[in-house]
Amino acid sequence: MDKILVLDFGGQYDQLIARRIRNENVYTQIYDHDAITPDMILEQGYKGIVFTGGPNSVYSDSSISCSKKILELGIPILGICYGHQLLAHLEGGKIIAAKERSEYGKTIVHMEDSPLFKDVPKESVCWMSHSDQTQILPEGYRAIAHTDNCAIAAMECQEKNFYGVQFHPEVTHTQYGTKILFNFIFEICKCDPDWRIEDFAQRQIERYKQELGSDHVLLGLSGGVDSLVCGILLSKAIGKNLHCVLVDHGLFRMNEVQEIEKTMRKDFDIDLTIVNAKDRFLSHLQGVKEPEAKRKIIGEDFIRVFEEEAKRLKDIRILAQGTIYPDVIESGKGSSATIKSHHNVGGLPDRMRFEKIIEPLNTLFKDEVRKLGLQLGIDRKLVYRQPFPGPGLSIRVIGEVNEEKLEMLKKADAIFREELEKANLSPMSDQYFAILTDTKSVGVKGDARTYGFTVALRAVRTDDFMTAEWSRLPYEVLEKVSGRITNEVEGVGRVVYDITSKPPATVEWE
Ligand code: XMP
User: Fold this and answer.
1) I need a surface site. Which of 78, 433, 458, 466 has the fewest CB within 10 A?
2) Which residue in the list 81, 157, 191, 230 is annotated as catalytic?
3) Which residues line ligand 1 (CB under 6 A)?
4) Is residue 86 helix, strand or coil?
5) Host H or E run for residue 418
6) Tens digit of pLDDT for each residue in 219-270?
7) pTM for this one?
């Protein structure tokens, strides 16, 4: 399988580069700039290397670099932004700090003929974000693009197959960015597009069949997509030797536990234990109003329950986790032997010793996990479910949580989701849910005065959940939802729509 190495110099968009290349069906791996040696690069057989952007300046004391030997391996290189400057610097060019000439945002770039710009118009919009720039090219290089402020916006040395671009081809604001990356991996590196999720599934199933033999494996299900896909994949390799545990804390959405149960037991015939721990969680949450305190209680309780379950299944020495590639990259290490925070609400304690941890999805991005889920035959609705916070509905009941409030919230939330989906509006939002506020208000029903809770509706559009825009839902749909909630959910007297973006608000209310 052909592979591209993304060498990380601390840029904001490194994962994006890797995802864009994988979207072209070429396998891509990200390594920290100093985490892979030239020998390892040769051994692992990369067909091309991308140097990413980064916050440094090549001449500053804190600047980061890589072994110069990487330039002697005969492997094509594409430098992006800082990576472009670093390549020029390592090759003997000169970079200048050009504060007064810095460029940020969409910029017109004029391009010349080059294999990197094959089928790209001579003039197009690119995304720039730099203050330093290349002033003198290294020997053997030529400039292949410029802007009004930057004479060397891209360079090439065709003889070595080295290229550098000052702009960011990986962000969507660069009009022909995907085409430029495409040219690098196919025209220059001559990769075959042979990374396919179908093959991945088959390879992993075969691998775990061999590796695990008759061993038993424990997997905690969080209710999220990753652990679900991980479970189905492993069950195809080891069948009934996989034991899944779902801790039902009572904080899942309406029918969620039943949906997971149906998928695991009926659709895939997997050994599943559902631990009913609702009373335990709710009793510990009694009287607790502070959001962080709620998160802590849920995290601790989750660990205790999982621990008890693991003890009961004492012969199991292998723990599986649904860790995905961004978790691995963000934790700053490769596939780890430490147990990653489970359920997103806390780590498993040290004393829970497993002889081995397996993470079958730890090379996949989220969109690839979803593709794999579909490939394995999991229902599309489950595969494309929206993210759900580890502490569940407890952080959507503002203030103290109790069973009565949870019931109200579950019903209101189900109505909101149902109406949005019925109106085909779900693609407009990446996350949409209801919140039960702790505000009561006066109303009138028939001739009687009511005093009920206020439900807030939240729907947001986002790419990465770091920032988010509130969704402009049609009034008619909001009206329908409001009417249904106040009529069908006893105890709720008012519905409001949250029109705050992130920042300044967060997606969740707590
Ligand atoms: P915020 O509220 O921080 O949410 O804007 C961003 C995304 O993260 C989810 N979220 C959580 N996920 N445990 C989780 O696993 C949590 O404690 C938690 N808090 C927020 C939130 O649903 C949104 O998708």
Assistant:
1) 466
2) 81
3) 295, 344, 387, 389-391, 431, 465, 502, 506-508
4) helix
5) helix 403-422
6) 999 888 999 999 999 999 999 999 999 999 999 999 999 999 999 999 999 9
7) 0.80
